Amino acid sequence: MNRFSDRRTHSIPGFLLPVLVFLLVFFFAFRGISSISDTTAEKEMEGLEQTVYRDIVHCYASEGYYPVDIDYLKEHYGLTWNEERYWIDYQPIGSNLMPDVTVVKHGGAK
């Protein structure tokens, strides 16, 4: 006869299962938000790079030469970006060759 045995010692306590379910839901929600944030940052960098190239082409079309540096685009074409978050590597090749542009996210920026 098993009527004196204690079944509760062999099962998970009643409060532990809801806590585990909550932690799992929280974990997957956090991972989803983190993934969305990473995707948004990538799109933001791509958009900034496209904007820089658009301003470079606009400068070449209207003035006949490519800008000497990124400051020229800032002063004459109104280029702005979050300089604390992104760094733009602007490498001019010549007055008649399109410069090489790379947008890099600062390591410590959030």
The side-by-side strand order for the widest beta sheet comes to 1-2
List SSEs in N-to-C order: HHEE
The biggest beta sheet reads: 2 strands, antiparallel
Shape verdict: rod-shaped
Count of DSSP-assigned helices: 2
Low-confidence stretches: none
Strand content: 5-15%
Taking the alpha carbons of the first and last residues, their distance comes to 64 Å
- The helix content is 40-55%
Class from helix and strand fractions: mainly alpha
Radius of gyration from the alpha-carbon trace, in angstroms: 28 Å
Number of strands: 2
The chain-level mean pLDDT equals 84
Descriptive report:
The chain has 110 residues and is mainly α. 51% of the residues lie in helices and 11% in strands. A two-stranded antiparallel ribbon has the order 1-2. The chain starts with 15 loop residues before the first helix and ends in a 5-residue tail after the last strand.
Short description:
The protein is mainly alpha-helical. The chain has helices at residues 16-63, 70-77, and strands at 86-91, 100-105.
